[in-house]
Amino acid sequence: MFKVLLSRYQQTQLAPHRLGFLAGGVLLVLSFAWWAAQMLGRWQGLALPSAVVPMFLHGYSMTYSFFPLFMLGFIYTAGPRWLGVASPSQAVYAPIMLGYLLGGLLVLASATNTSLLSWGIVLQLTAWLAGLALWLRAIFASSVQDQLHARMVALGFALGAVGLGLALYWALSGEYSAWFAAVQIGIWGLLLPVFLAVSHRMIPFFSASALPIYTPWRPKWWLYTLVGCSLLRLVLIGFAINTLVVDAVMASILLYTTWRWDLKKSFQVKLLAMLHAAFAWAGVAMLLSVISDVLQLYGHLGLGFAPLHALTLGFFCCMLLAFVTRVTLGHSGRPLLAGGLAWTCYWLMQGVALARVVGELMPSIQALAYAVAASLAMVAILSWSRVYLPMYWQARVDGGAG
User: Fold this and answer.
1) Among 38, 192, 204, 399, which residue is least crowded by beta carbons within 10 Å?
2) In this predicted model, what pLDDT tens digit does every residue of 24-77 receive, in sequence order?
């Protein structure tokens, strides 16, 4: 048994994405399992015990728990190719990823013991700073002229470190404003800029390689504008200023991009359609934000968390599932084909996003919509994980390296 476990662990060290995706997958399953239990309990009128206020733990874990590990796994695998530098050694990246994983486990365990929360965030902040330093070292060592996407990722990582620092202050002080700032920075400073940068670089590239007669479109102004708007939105939130103008600009560009990148044509290739359909949620999320902004200007409550969950569940989580599936297939030597399982799990996750948004828009069925979202999420994530997570400790099927 020991030899088998050792062999599997050694396989996870053959490429950064293996360990990063596996560790991220573990936290993905656990984070959603805890959230699903809370939602199903609420549906039944039960308040499940939690040492940390569930809303606070949910906001932190869904922002900083699993996403950063998937990001590290991807950027340490693909990033060196962007920059023309050597890939980091496992002796360097493995402690970073394992430290972040351990921190994430402690954060989730803080639901039973609040003292674990600050220790978990300390570990994650320390690992993240080391991960940021490793990525910056790669950028500084590169002589490639086009470093736009690499630097945008670095910017997101740096802001993520700020957010984790504020989260640590929240854990130590209990200050709500620090938690709120940490989550907002995580969404608009870390997650959205990184997802936009990777989408801008990879979706047109994947589309051109998979579709006949496809002209990639990815102007630099697109990324500068959207990331700039995301950061400006973060500032406006900090000053409690309505974000209508910024949201309208972002919604217009993102919805136009969905059309310009040809969502309809992408359905010729299922794996590509998964990327495009996930990206479409970004424009929908910002359009919902515009509607909510207008309602608030006229003294109404707005759309609640509908825009936020359209962005986080619709864009971030669906894109994560689509992108990680593609990278995993390609780097495990398998054909780039979305089989029935991946395709089904993906659309179940789309259903999670839709149910969560509908629950906000229709308060009369909110508890039921949350329960549906939680159930669909667990079916999708557990089914996907059962097939894809083992690929990270298995040898490539084509006998290749990595």
Assistant:
1) 399
2) 999 999 999 999 999 999 898 888 889 999 999 999 999 999 999 999 999 999
CA 236 to CA 348: how far, in whole Å? 34
pLDDT in tens, 128-185: 999 999 999 999 999 999 999 999 999 999 999 999 999 999 999 999 999 999 999 9
> Where does 44-66 have alpha helices with state H?
54-64
Q: Where does residue 171 rank: exposed (0-12), middle (13-18), buried (19+ CB within 10 A)?
A: buried
Q: Measured between alpha carbons, how far is 282 from 67 in angstroms, rounded to an integer?
A: 17
* Tokens, residue 338: 């979305």
Residues in the chain: 402
The DSSP H or E segment spanning 86 is none
CB 12 within 8 A of CB 18: yes
Give the SS3 label for residue 292: helix
Packed helices 366-388 and 318-331: angle between N→C axes, nearest 10 degrees: 10
Sign of CA dihedral 376, 164, 112, 172: negative
C-alpha distances (whole Å) from 279 to each of 8, 150, 186, 367 are 34, 20, 19, 27
Q: How far apart are CA 296 and CA 302, in angstroms?
A: 5
- Token pair, residue 71, equals 């990001």
Pairwise CA distance, residues 19 & 12, whole Å: 5
The per-residue DSSP string of 340-358 comes to HHHHHHHHHHHHHHHHHHH
pTM above 0.85, yes or no: yes
Q: How far apart are CA 109 and CA 153, in angstroms?
A: 30
* Residues 293, 247 contacting (CB under 8 angstroms): yes
Q: How many Å from the N-terminal Cα to the C-terminal Cα in the chain?
A: 24
Which sign, positive or negative, has the C-alpha torsion 307, 224, 152, 160? Answer: negative
Q: Hey, is 112 helix, strand or coil?
A: coil
- Return the structure tokens found at 200: 């801008």
Name the DSSP class of 14.
Answer: S
Cβ neighbours of residue 240 under 8 Å, at least 6 residues apart?
none
